[in-house]
Specification:
- The complex is a heterodimer of chains A (554) and B (318).
- With 554 residues, chain A is mostly helical.
- Helices cover 83% and strands 1% of the residues of chain A.
- The longest helix of chain A has 74 residues.
- Chain A is extended.
- By secondary structure, chain B is an alpha/beta fold.
- Chain B has a single domain, classed as P-loop containing nucleotide triphosphate hydrolases (Rossmann fold, 3-Layer(aba) Sandwich), CATH 3.40.50.300.
- Chain B has eleven helices and ten strands.
- In chain B, α2 crosses α3, α3 packs across α4 and α4 packs parallel to α5.
- The longest helix of chain B is centred in the middle third of the chain and has 18 residues.
- Chain B is globular and about 55 Å long.
- The interface between A and B is medium-sized, with 18 and 24 residues.
- Chain B: It holds the Pfam family ABC_tran.
Chain lengths: 554, 318
C-alpha cells in the first residue's frame, strides 16, 4: 500500500518534470513548499547526481529513518505502560483503529444510501447483501471453530506452562503448613515449662517467638509471589487466541452491518415505509367515503393523520451517527469560520493601528490584556452569548436558514459551533493584528516619498502603496493565527460539545471501550496532519503574495 | 526648445533664496547643514549641483522637492513658493524606488493616473507606453522590478518622473548606483528627453564629467556644514549634446580643470565657521599650529582613498 503510494508520487514527479520542464517543476515544488522532492527531479535530469543523492539522503532517507526509529521506540514503550484503559496502544493497534474508523465511516454511508434506495437498485443491493450474508455463514462457523480450538490450545499451553509452578506452590503450601505446625508445637511445649522469675529464659522465649513470626511471614511472601506469578501467566493474553478473536469480531461486525443494511433496504427503507403508509391511507379513505354523519369526523382525522405521517417520512433522513471524517470536516469548517471572523476584525484594526500612532495607543491596552486570555476562558462566555441569541436552533430563523444552505447545511451549524468559532477568532486574531500593524507602519520610506511626490490621496496611498507592502507580514500573521486557531479549536470543541474532532476525543475518553485508547492516539495524528496541511497552505499563499520573491522559512 | 513658444523663457523660473537647513543638536547649537544657499535657474535650464559627498547637495534637492522641511529662506518655482511635494516637481531618486508589486507599466501609470485624471483610459495607456518607449523599455512593460536590472529599474524611475509632465525635474544622483556603461546609456536617455521636452532640471552629482556633459551650468557647493554655493560655472556646449563633440570642445579641459581644482580646494579647505572665526582675528597660537599643520598636509601627494575617508568623516559629522 505504502509502496504503491511512493511509486505513484515518483511517477507524478517524473511525469511533471518531463511535461513542464525542469525549472517549472522545481519552481512549482518550491511554491508548494515540498522542497524535499526537488533533488529527485534534478536527479531525473542528471544534474550533479552526487549532490542530489546526498540531498535525497538528507531530506528523505534521514526523516524516514527517524520515523522508523520513532515507531520502534513507541512500540517498545507502549509495552511497558499499563493503564486502567489498557496498554498504551502500539503502532499496530493505532493503525488497526484507523482502519476501524474508516470502515465505520463507509458502512454508515452505505446505510444512508440504502435508506434512500428504491426500485430496481434497491432489489439489486438487497440481493448483494443477502448473498454476502450467505457467504458469511460458513466463514462464521469456521471462525467460531477456530476460536474454540485456539481457546482450547491456549488453555492447554497455559496449563503446561503453569503446571510446574502450581506443583511447586502446592508442595510449598503443604511444607509450610507442616513447618508451622511443628513450630507451634515447639512453642507450646516451651510455654508449658515456663517458671516464674526466670528472666533469661523468658527473654529467650521472646526471641524464639519473634524468629518464628519472621519465618511465617517469609513463607507467606514466598507463596504470594508464586500465586502472583501464576495469575500473571493466566492473565496474559495468548496471541493466537487474540488473533482468532479479532477475526471473529471482524466477521461479527460485518454480519451486524449486513443485517442493518438488510433492514434499511426492507422494513426501514423510506419508500417501503411510504408504501405501507399509502396502503393505510387508501384504507382510511375508503372508510371515509363509506362513513355517515356519526363516524365521518373520526375517519377524516385518520386520513389527515396518515397524510401528515407520509409527509414526515418523505422528509426524514437516515439518522446517521457522526463519523470521524464528518467531524474532521466540521472542525476544519469551524476553524475557517473562526479564522475569517478573526481576520475580518484583525486586519482592519491592524491597518488602523499601523496608520495612526494615536489609534495604536488606544488599542495597546486591549491587545495587552486580551492577548494572553486562554480559550478556556473565552469559550463559556461565547457559549452563553451565542445561546442567548439562538436559544433554540431548531426554531431560530438564522440556524434554519443555515441548515437550508446547499453545502453548509450538512454541518448543522448550532450555537456550540458558533461559540467555538468565536473562541477561535478571539484567540487567533492578535497575531494577525500585530503583524499587520507592524507591516503597515514599516512601509519603506522611499515608497512613502513616491506617494508624497505624486500627492496620492488617502485611499490610493492605502491600496496602492501601504497595503501591498504590508501584505507579506500580514500573511505571516495570518499563518500564525491559523495555527493558533487550530490548536484552540480542539479544546473549544471538547468543552462546548460541538460535533468535531474535540468532541470525538471527549467521547472516546468517556466511553472507555477497548479500542477508545487507540482511537485517541490515532486522532493525535489526524490533528497533527491537518495542522500541517493548513500551515503549508498558508505558506503557499504567503509566497504568492510576497513580491520580493524571498524564500519563506520552512 | 521652449515649451511655450509664444512666451519668452522665464529667466527667474526657479528662485532659491538664502536657503537654510538646520538639524537640532541636543548638545549645542543646531547644526546648519546648508546655510544661505542661493540659486536662480532659467526656465528650461539644466543645472548640475556638484560637491563632495555629505556637503548637503541632496538636502538642497529634497527641499526643492518639498520632501524636506525648510528651516529658513525660500524656494519659488514659476513665481510661486513651493508648498510640500507635488507632481509638478518630479524626482528621480538614487535608488529607483519602484513599487515591487507593480509592473513597469503600473509603476508609470501610478503617476499618470494622478496627473492626467481627466484623460480617458486609452489616452493614459498611450502616455505610459510613449514614455516607456522613450526610455527604451517598450518590451519590458509587464516586467516586475525584481525581473529587471538596476539600469532598467532606473529607466522606469525616469519614465515615471517624466510622464508626470513636471515643470521641474529633480535628479538625485540618478546614476550613482550604476556601472559606468549603463550610466552613459542613461545619461543619453535623459539628454534625449530633455532635448525634446526642455524641462528645467536640477541634477545632483559628484561626477565632474557627468556634470559637464549633462548641464548648462554647474553649481559647485562648498563643503558642509554651512554649505552654500561656492562658484557657478557656465558651460558653452550646444544642445542637443553629443558626447564626442563635448569631449573635443577646446574649452572642455579648461572647464574640467576649473571644476576639479574647486573640488580639490574644497577638500583641504578649513570648514567655513573656523575660517570665519580666523578672519575675525581669533589667532590663538594653537590655531596657528593647526593651520601650519594643514599647510604641510597640502604639500603631501593626494591619495584618493585618503580624501575619500576624510569626506566620509565630514559626512558622518553632518
Amino acid at each position: 500500500m505504502l509502496g504503491l503510494w511512493i511509486i505513484l508520487i515518483l511517477a507524478c514527479l517524473v511525469g511533471a518534470a518531463a511535461w513542464a520542464g525542469k525549472h517549472r517543476t522545481v519552481k512549482a515544488i518550491d511554491v508548494a513548499g515540498l522542497n524535499f522532492l526537488t533533488p529527485i527531479v534534478r536527479l531525473c535530469y542528471g544534474e550533479e547526481p552526487e549532490k542530489q543523492l546526498k540531498d535525497i539522503g538528507r531530506f528523505i532517507v534521514v526523516p524516514v529513518i527517524a520515523i522508523l526509529l520513532f515507531l520502534g521506540a513507541w512500540h517498545v514503550v507502549s509495552e511497558k505502560i499499563q493503564t486502567k484503559s489498557g496498554k498504551l496502544p502500539n503502532p499496530r493497534d493505532t493503525l488497526h483503529a484507523a482502519k476501524a474508523i474508516n470502515d465505520f465511516h463507509y458502512r454508515e454511508n452505505d446505510k444512508q444510501a440504502a435508506f434512500n434506495l428504491n426500485g430496481e437498485e434497491r432489489a439489486q443491493e438487497l440481493e448483494r447483501v443477502e448473498q454476502r450474508l450467505e457467504e458469511l455463514k460458513p466463514l462464521e462457523a469456521e471462525v467460531n471453530k477456530n476460536v474454540a480450538a485456539a481457546k482450547e490450545a491456549a488453555k492447554e499451553r497455559l496449563a503446561t506452562k503453569v503446571a510446574p509452578l502450581q506443583e511447586e506452590l502446592d508442595t510449598l503450601t503443604a511444607k509450610f503448613k507442616d513447618a508451622k505446625k511443628q513450630r507451634d508445637d515447639e512453642l507450646a511445649s516451651l510455654a508449658s515449662q515456663a517458671a516464674v522469675g526466670d528472666e533469661d529464659a523468658k527473654n529467650a522465649f521472646v526471641g524464639k517467638v519473634r524468629a518464628y513470626r519472621q519465618l511465617a511471614s517469609d513463607e507467606r511472601d514466598r507463596l504470594r509471589d508464586l500465586r502472583t506469578e501464576i495469575n500473571d501467566m493466566r492473565a496474559e493474553k495468548d496471541p493466537e487466541e487474540q488473533r482468532a478473536l479479532a477475526e471473529q469480531t471482524a466477521i461479527a461486525e460485518e454480519r451486524q452491518y449486513l443485517g442493518k443494511m438488510q433492514d434499511q433496504l426492507t422494513d426501514s427503507n423510506r419508500y417501503e415505509k411510504v408504501d405501507e403508509e399509502n396502503a393505510k391511507l387508501q384504507e382510511a379513505r375508503e372508510t371515509l367515503y363509506a362513513a355517515d354523519s356519526a363516524t365521518i369526523l373520526k375517519a377524516a382525522t385518520k386520513v389527515a393523520q396518515t397524510e401528515d405521517r407520509i409527509d414526515r417520512i418523505e422528509e426524514s433522513g437516515y439518522a446517521k451517527p457522526a463519523t470521524l471524517p464528518y467531524q474532521v470536516k466540521r472542525s476544519v469548517l469551524c476553524v475557517f469560520v473562526g479564522f475569517l471572523i478573526g481576520s475580518a476584525i484583525a486586519i482592519p484594526l491592524g491597518v488602523l493601528c499601523g496608520l495612526s500612532k494615536t489609534f495604536m495607543a488606544a488599542m495597546t491596552p486591549f491587545i495587552a490584556i486580551f492577548k494572553p486570555v486562554s480559550p478556556i476562558v473565552w469559550l463559556p462566555i461565547a457559549l452563553i452569548v451565542a445561546s442567548a441569541f439562538i436559544p433554540d436552533p431548531d426554531k431560530h430563523w438564522f440556524t434554519q436558514w443555515l441548515w437550508e444552505l446547499p453545502l453548509l447545511g450538512e454541518y448543522k451549524i448550532n450555537p456550540a459551533f458558533i461559540a467555538s468559532a468565536v473562541t477561535v477568532a478571539l484567540c487567533s486574531l492578535w497575531a494577525t493584528m500585530v503583524n499587520t500593524a507592524f507591516g503597515v507602519a514599516a512601509v519603506d520610506k522611499d515608497h512613502i516619498n513616491v506617494a508624497r511626490v505624486l500627492r496620492l490621496g488617502f485611499w490610493s496611498r492605502l491600496f496602492k502603496i501601504v497595503l501591498p507592502s504590508a501584505l507579506p507580514l500580514a500573511f505571516a500573521g495570518l499563518r500564525i493565527s491559523l495555527g493558533v486557531g487550530w490548536m484552540v479549536l480542539i479544546a473549544a470543541e471538547l468543552l462546548s460539545s460541538s460535533e468535531g474532532i474535540g468532541k470525538y476525543i471527549w467521547d472516546q475518553f468517556n466511553n472507555g471501550a477497548s479500542d477508545s485508547f487507540a482511537n485517541m492516539v490515532f486522532v493525535v495524528f489526524v490533528v497533527g496532519i491537518i495542522g500541517l496541511v493548513l500551515d503549508r497552505m498558508m505558506i503557499v499563499f504567503q509566497r504568492l503574495v510576497s513580491f520580493d520573491g524571498a524564500p519563506t522559512a520552512i | 526648445m521652449n515649451p511655450h513658444p509664444d512666451k519668452p523663457a522665464d529667466p527667474r523660473f526657479v528662485e532659491i533664496f538664502n536657503l537654510v537647513k538646520a538639524y537640532p543638536n541636543p548638545y549645542g547649537e543646531a547644526v546648519r547643514v546648508v546655510d544661505g544657499y542661493d540659486l536662480v535657474m532659467r526656465e528650461g535650464e539644466v543645472v548640475s549641483v556638484i560637491g563632495h559627498s555629505g556637503c548637503g547637495k541632496s538636502t538642497v534637492l529634497t527641499m526643492v522637492a518639498g520632501l524636506n522641511e525648510i528651516t529658513a529662506g525660500s524656494i519659488a518655482v514659476g513665481g510661486r513658493e513651493i508648498d510640500g511635494p507635488g507632481p509638478d516637481r518630479a524626482v528621480v531618486f538614487q535608488s529607483p524606488c519602484l513599487l515591487p508589486w507593480m509592473t513597469a507599466f503600473q509603476n508609470v501609470m501610478l503617476g499618470v493616473d494622478r496627473v492626467y485624471a481627466h484623460g480617458t483610459k486609452q489616452q493614459r495607456k498611450e502616455i505610459v507606453e510613449y514614455y516607456l518607449a522613450a526610455v527604451g523599455l517598450a518590451d519590458a512593460r509587464d516586467k516586475y522590478p525584481r525581473e529587471m536590472s538596476g539600469g532598467m529599474q532606473q529607466r522606469v524611475g525616469i519614465a515615471r518622473a517624466i510622464a508626470l509632465k513636471p515643470r521641474m525635474l529633480l535628479l538625485d544622483e540618478p546614476f550613482g548606483r550604476l556601472d559606468s556603461l549603463t550610466r552613459m546609456d542613461l545619461q543619453d536617455v535623459i539628454l534625449n528627453i530633455l532635448d525634446r521636452e526642455r524641462i528645467t532640471t536640477m541634477i545632483i552629482t559628484h561626477d565632474v564629467d557627468e556634470a559637464i556633459y549633462m548641464s548648462d551650468r554647474v553649481c559647485m557647493m562648498t563643503n558642509g556644514p554651512n554649505a552654500r554655493v561656492g562658484q557657478l560655472l557656465d558651460l558653452p556646449f550646444a544642445r542637443p549634446r553629443n558626447r564626442a563633440a563635448v569631449l573635443e570642445h577646446p574649452l572642455y579641459y579648461e572647464l574640467r580643470g576649473a571644476l576639479v581644482s574647486f573640488l580639490e580646494q574644497q577638500d583641504h579647505r578649513v570648514p567655513a565657521r573656523e575660517s570665519a572665526q580666523m578672519e575675525a582675528g581669533w589667532d590663538d597660537t594653537l590655531h596657528m599650529v593647526e593651520a601650519l599643520n594643514e599647510t604641510e598636509l597640502e604639500e603631501e601627494p593626494i591619495d584618493e582613498t585618503a580624501t575619500h575617508t576624510e569626506n566620509q568623516l565630514v559626512g558622518a559629522g553632518v
